[in-house]
Specification:
With 158 residues, the chain is α+β, with helices and mostly antiparallel strands. It has four helices and seven strands, in the order βααββββββαα. It is globular, with a radius of gyration of 16 Å.
Length: 158
């Protein structure tokens, strides 16, 4: 199993950060590398919600069908997919730290395949770490923009 863990303190309440991160339909406007989201299920987000994500990786667009496999607002959710012979689970955890939010992301890839395939996955770890950090940068910018708009009275809150 390959595992990447990272976190970031975001200067916004937990509900705002969770709502922005779990708004998968609008993820292409939040995450810089996401080119397109196609929702595959309808209704409110929860366990079983599915979507197709088109993401720019290493100069190419790549698609992944993603399913929400755990959803506990406003503290955690997990997204799961199968890619390159591996099951990938990405867990987002949100912790209130005095009005700010600690957003932690744990990305796990388990590869039941050959030793060669497991070696390839390990080689990809630095690239994946950069993608996860870039996603956190995008989330932090989007939250800052949203909270600024709320303070300026330009948008309402949920």
């Amino acid at each position: 199993m390959v595992c990447i863990e990272t976190s970031r303190l975001i200067s916004a309440p937990i509900e705002i950060v969770f709502d922005l991160c779990s708004n998968f339909a609008d993820a292409a406007t939040t995450i810089a590398e996401i080119q397109r989201i196609d929702m595959l299920t309808t209704g409110p987000v929860g366990v079983g919600t599915k979507f197709r994500e088109t993401r720019r990786m290493l100069g190419r667009d790549t698609d992944a069908e993603i399913e929400v496999t755990d959803f506990q607002p406003p503290t955690t959710y997990t997204l799961s997919t199968q890619k390159l012979g591996a099951r990938i689970d990405t867990t987002f955890s949100f912790v209130d730290e005095g009005g700010s939010t600690r957003l932690s992301i744990v990305w796990r890839a388990s590869s039941p395949g050959s030793s060669a395939m497991k070696f390839v996955h390990r080689l990809m770890i630095n690239a994946v770490r950069r993608f996860v950090e870039s996603d956190l940068d995008s989330i932090q910018r989007a939250v800052a923009k949203q909270t600024s708009a709320i303070q300026d009275g330009k948008v309402g809150t949920k």
